[in-house]
Design a protein that fits this description.
Largest sheet: 6 strands, mixed
Number of domains: 4
Bound molecules: adenosine monophosphate, magnesium ion
CATH topology of the largest domain: Molybdenum Cofactor Biosythetic Enzyme, Chain A
Structural class: alpha+beta
Distance between the termini: 36 Å
Radius of gyration: 30 Å
Helix content: 10-25%
Number of helices: 7
Strand order of the largest sheet: 7-4-6-5-9-8
CATH superfamily of the largest domain: MoaB/Mog-like domain
C-alpha cells in the first residue's frame, strides 16, 4: 500500500528495453506466414511488372507514325500471357490488359476511343506518349528490399512477396507463451456453477489474443490459490515456454499467492502501474523466463494484455511495430479520471454527417466483460484530464480477433 504508482509509459519503455528477440529462425510457406515476423529481408530478384504492359484493352500504337482518322491495319493481336512481335510501323496491334507492350509502340489507345472499319481501325483521339503503359518495375525495381526484418506479415504482404516470385519466407520461430489462471472460484464451462464459483473467462480470451499475435499459447490451466500450487505451476510454465502470463492473485490479499511466489522463485520487477483498469500488475522473471501477472478482473486482464504485455511479446518475437494503431476523434461523453491513466471501452462510430465520434460504454467496471465485447477501441485518457463532449481523444483500435 502507498507505494508510488509507475506511469504506463515508463513501464513500457522499461519492458521494451528488457525484451530480447528470440533467435531461432525457420522457413514457412507463404500460405502459413500471416502474423509471423520476418527474420530476413525480402529482396526482389525481378522487376514488377517484368515488362512494360498495357493498362487497358485497346490498341498498341506509335503516336509518331499514325494520325487521328487514318484507317489503320491491325498487324498483331496480343492477349495477356503472350508476347507480340515488334510493332510494324504505321499499323496498330490489338492488345489486352496486362499484355506486354510490343517493341516500337509508345502508347496504348483505349478501345473506347477507337472505331472498327471492316478489319481496320480508326482512332478518334490520340493519346500522349506513354499513356496506358504500366512501366516495367513501376511497382518494384529489381534489387529492392520490399519488406524488412521485423515486419509482422499481413495478408497483403503475402501477396507482395508472391509478386516477386517467393513461395516461402524466413521468420522467427513462434514465441511460446504459457497461460495460467489463478483462483479457487474459477471453473471451466460448461460445468454448472456452485455458489461462489465463476467461469474462467480470461483463459479463452488470452489464448485467442496469443494466437492472433502469431504466437503459440501453452496451456497451464487453472491454478488453485495456494503457495504450493502456484509454485508448481510457475515452474512448469517456465520450463515449457518463453514467457508466462497469469491472471489473478497479484493483489495484496492473503489469497494472492502469485506475487509472493514470484518473489521467492525469481524476481519481481514492478507491480503497481498507474493505469485503470489494471493497477495490480506484476512483471518479473522465473529463472530467466519473463513473467506477467495480470489482474484477475476480466476487463483488466484484457486491457493490460493489449497495452502492456503485447508490446513486450511483439518485441520478443522480433517485431518492430509494437503499439496498437490509434486515431484521434471527438468524445461524445464527459469524464474525469483520477490519479491513473484510464483506458475506457469505447466505440468509434460515424455520426449522421459521416464524422467519427467516440462513444463509451455506460458501465466501465473492470468486471464488465460486455464492455470489451461491445467496444472497438480503448480510449486513452490521461490522469486528471477532464474530458467534455467534443474534446479530441486518442483511441487505440482493438485488433479483430
Ligand atoms: P484477483 O486478482 O485474483 O483478486 O481477482 C480479481 C477478480 O477477478 C475476482 O472477482 C476474480 O473472481 C476475478 N477473476 C480472476 N480470475 C478470473 C478469470 N480467469 N476469469 C474470470 N474472472 C476472474
Ligand atoms: Mg484471485
Amino acid at each position: 500500500m502507498g507505494a508510488p504508482l509507475t506511469p504506463v509509459d515508463e513501464v513500457l519503455d522499461y519492458l521494451i528495453s528488457k525484451a530480447d528477440c528470440v533467435v531461432e529462425k525457420e522457413w514457412v510457406e507463404l500460405q502459413y506466414a500471416r502474423d509471423r515476423v520476418l527474420a530476413s529481408d525480402v529482396v526482389s530478384a525481378i522487376n514488377v511488372p517484368l515488362m512494360d504492359n498495357s493498362a487497358m484493352d485497346g490498341y498498341a500504337i506509335n503516336t509518331n507514325d499514325i494520325s487521328v482518322g487514318d484507317e489503320l491495319v491491325v498487324s498483331d493481336r496480343i492477349p495477356a500471357g503472350k508476347t507480340g512481335q515488334d510493332l510494324v510501323s504505321g499499323t496498330v496491334a490489338r492488345i489486352f490488359t496486362g499484355a506486354p507492350v510490343p517493341r516500337g509502340a509508345n502508347a496504348v489507345v483505349m478501345q473506347e476511343l477507337t472505331e472498327k472499319v471492316g478489319d481496320k481501325v480508326r482512332i478518334s483521339e490520340m493519346p500522349g506518349e506513354g499513356v496506358n503503359i504500366r512501366r516495367a518495375g513501376q511497382d518494384i525495381d529489381q534489387g529492392t528490399t520490399i519488406l524488412q526484418v521485423g515486419r509482422r506479415l499481413r495478408a497483403q504482404d503475402l501477396g507482395l512477396i508472391a509478386s516477386v516470385g517467393c513461395d516461402r519466407v524466413q521468420v522467427f520461430r513462434r514465441l511460446k507463451i504459457a497461460v495460467m489462471s489463478t483462483g479457487d472460484e474459477l471453473i471451466e464451462p460448461p460445468v454448472p456453477l456452485q455458489p461462489g464459483q465463476i467461469y474462467n473467462s480470461n483463459h479463452p480470451t488470452l489464448i485467442a489474443m496469443i494466437h492472433q499475435l502469431g504466437m503459440e499459447p501453452v496451456d497451464i490451466g487453472l491454478v488453485e490459490d495456494s503457495a504450493e500450487a502456484t509454485e508448481k505451476a510457475l515452474k512448469d510454465a517456465a520450463g515449457k515456454a518463453d514467457c508466462i502470463v497469469s491472471t489473478g492473485g497479484v493483489s495484496v490479499g492473503e489469497e494472492d499467492y502469485v506475487k509472493s511466489t514470484v518473489e521467492r522463485l525469481g524476481r519481481l520487477e514492478l507491480w503497481r502501474i498507474a493505469m485503470k483498469p489494471g493497477k495490480p500488475l506484476a512483471f518479473g522473471y522465473i529463472d530467466e523466463t519473463p513473467f506477467f501477472g495480470l489482474p484477475g478482473n476480466p476487463v483488466s486482464s484484457f486491457v493490460t494484455f493489449l497495452i502492456v504485455a503485447r508490446p513486450f511479446f511483439l518485441k520478443l518475437q522480433g517485431c518492430y511495430e509494437l503499439r496498437l494503431p490509434s486515431m484521434t476523434a471527438p468524445a461524445e461523453f464527459a469524464m474525469k479520471p483520477g490519479l491513473r491513466r484510464e483506458y475506457c471501452r469505447v466505440r468509434v462510430e460515424y455520426d449522421g454527417s459521416g464524422k467519427e465520434v467516440v462513444t463509451n460504454f455506460d458501465n466501465q467496471g473492470s468486471g464488465v466483460l460486455s464492455s470489451v465485447s461491445w467496444a472497438n477501441g480503448l480510449a486513452e485518457i490521461e490522469m486528471g484530464r477532464e474530458i467534455n463532449p467534443g474534446d479530441l481523444i486518442k483511441v487505440y483500435l482493438l485488433p479483430d480477433a
